[in-house]
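Standup notes, structure subgroup. Blocker cleared on the guanosine-5'-triphosphate input:
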Amino acid sequence: MPDNRMYQTNDKSPLQIFVRAKKKINDIYGEIEEYVLETTTFINALHADAEIVDKAERELFESYVFKVAAIREVLQRDHMKVAFFGRTSNGKSSVINAMLREKILPSGIGHTTNCFCQVEGSDGGEAYLMKEGSDEKLNVVNIKQLANALCQEKLSESSLVRIFWPRERCSLLRDDVVFVDSPGVDVSANLDDWIDNHCLNADVFVLVLNAESTMTRAEKQFFHTVSQKLSKPNIFILNNRWDASANEPEFQESSTLWVATCAIDSFQQVKSQHTERCIDFLTKELKVSNEKEAAERVFFVSARETLQARIEESKGNPPHLGAIADGFQIRYFEFQDFERKFEECISQSAVKTKFQQHSSRGKSVSGDMRSMLDNIYERITIFRNLKQDQKNLLTERIQGTETQMMQVTREMKMKIHNMVEEVEEKVSKALNE
Ligand code: GTP
Ligand code: MG
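Run returned:
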């Protein structure tokens, strides 16, 4: 798999912004955890020694240990999430497969995806799936078995099946991107539930349209609701099946120059009409981006062709062997351009929404701990000064007593001396008499 390997070692990918930020914040939280544990041990020892720290403070410190551990756990699970929506058969599953460079999700004509399918990376080279509400790992040997497993399950359209795919098989999974595939927006009446259950923590949304037709009311309505529930969601629009336009008789190459020029003109007209509508939708209707940003969010691609090209590449063949129609190279480049912009957008957005919260929590925990420690330090200083004062007082007293004692001793000495002299005098007097 020459191309895959080349991509996997490409650490210039914009996704690395998220990967590096995640590593950094995890390391910082590791240090915070150590510091909190050490401080708690110290505080508990202080409590045993003297009445410097009370029970409430000790308990508060212990609560920080749990808080930090909980944040660390969430951090380990943080990822970048992209959700795909659009009408049935527009090619949502095919776009995900093209990005994953492998046919992982079932795709086909008719209503294929019948519940939410989340594809995420698994460690240890294992492929398995897990149904909502169960921890059981159902082994997946191949894609056919996965498709069968998904079809056999009588799942509600809002429920979620998690597909774990070996990280090393795709750089996007390795870098913690999680893909959410959905059933067509036209087959459900529960769109609000969909948004509440699967979209609120998505970093990017991809609306997959069919370039052969125009955006439907159901597709528009869905994104209106998304943008009401989330402030400024990041939305990309893919006009998929663009290869089909190249096969349109009116756009095909002609032997006469005049007919050929007309064909190119009308091809461009269709493209600019779609582009204008998509930009208007993002800017004027949803008001989620300005004209310039919106122009960078609309693409004309062929998911099926891209997937075929990538499968050829993985076999060591040139990608154009996967071409479906004329103009393959342009569509292939456009798909890669979409991926690049998508990667930039998702990693920046995920860093902001996910890590900003964690870093401000970390700051407030360490700020609270610092002010508590400052208080304790102040109390210890007062306590130490008090002891010092007592010591000084005692020393003064001892010194006073010593002086008194010396004086008394001196006086006693004098008295004894005088007494001895007096006795001696009396004795010699008596002897003389
Ligand atoms: P549901 O899961 O039913 O909602 O459909 P979906 O949106 O996931 O579409 P899916 O990926 O299953 O594709 C539907 C059919 O369209 C499949 O037969 C695909 O091979 C085909 N298809 C998808 N993308 C393209 C494309 O870019 N060009 C062409 N020609 N066919 C495509
Ligand atoms: Mg599908």
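Discussed briefly. The mean pLDDT is 86.
Next: hand off to the docking folks.
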